[in-house]
Amino acid sequence: MGRLQVVGATVVDGSGREPVDVDVTLEDGQITQVGASGARGERIEAGGLTMTPGLIDAHVHLGLSSPIQPQFSFQISAAEIAADIFATAGAALDAGFTTVRDTGGVDGGLVTTIAKGKVRGPRVLSCGPVQCQTGGHGYYGADWEPTELWSSHHVPGLCALSMMSGNADELRANVREAFRRGASFLKLCVTGGVVGAHDRLTDTQFTVEEIAVAVQEAAARGTYVTVHAHNNDGIRNAVEAGARCVEHGTDLDESTAALMVARDVALVPTFAVVEQLLHDTAGAGLGESTRDRVLGVRERMTEALAVAKEAGVRIGLGSDLIGPAQHRRGEELRLRAELETPMEALVAATKTNAEILGLSGQVGVIAPGAQADLVLWNGNPVEDPELFADPANAVLVLKAGRIVKDLR
């Protein structure tokens, strides 16, 4: 790809250090120098713009880009589902997100298609289908529908929301199948959820011994388990079983947060989806009963964030957006900036998320040797975090050194 220099930008490197005005040199998809360079090459004049690392969303659902209830009830064709997924993948890039962790909904073929460059999209790490307890969170079939028919909702190579397990042996078989399909980590639902059909937020799902089976299978492949968990009992079960990350963490308490620190377990809160479901439930293709379930979750998740910060838990950032309205993915940073500082929100969405995803030093920082994933913003989002929420403010996006969006 040759050498490229971005000159004149204010650089916020993802480490938490103060912004500096410095040139950045890229070559063959990597950052080679941060500072003045006498090397020749193509130049991008970026005076007046702010450069950040490409953002990372640690909790996405690309496979849930169509209205949810119609998709689950076979009212949308595979072609339309694919079109919606591809549009959402492109919108993630346009919002400044160059890496995402898909926590359930896509099958391996979608990841490969984006990686080959056939569809615009960020770098995708995927768990494949979510691992769920029979009848638990993640199962959206009708009450009369036999559990074994649920897999007929999958579109092989494109989308596969969840797999059901009734015991540890079934779970072991299912996680091995997920790895066969290309999963790079595992996700289990260990409590009920907000978008639920057969469960409550207070439910715990899977035993410690069952979760440990998935942890064992992940460790055998050099990877990890993350868990969907709202209530504290479910969070603690997962931590005791060896999970490495907790999604949501709504009712996390002090003692469990301390255990997370002791065992180096990360937390990924998800505020944007709560706002989405409170204010536009229908837009996600869901009924009003979902809105009733989410009431109070934001307040408790805010308290859990404070508890986790006080304890010293490593805290990433995820949007968890679902349905068609996923273009304002940066809303998560704006919401987090209201609860922390804008710089802390940016670090969570870059350096910390890279650590959680196992990509530390490769993405999420502006430093020599890292992938040249960069965003140039019209303004300084560390001073005005509202800028993160509007994709139009990301005027130039580079993924591995290639320009994938240019509004200059």
UniProtKB/TrEMBL annotation:
One of its GO terms (molecular function) is hydrolase activity, acting on carbon-nitrogen (but not peptide) bonds. Coiled coil: none annotated. Pfam families: Amidohydro_1. Residues 50-404 form the Amidohydrolase-related domain. This is Peptidase M38. It comes from Amycolatopsis orientalis (Nocardia orientalis).
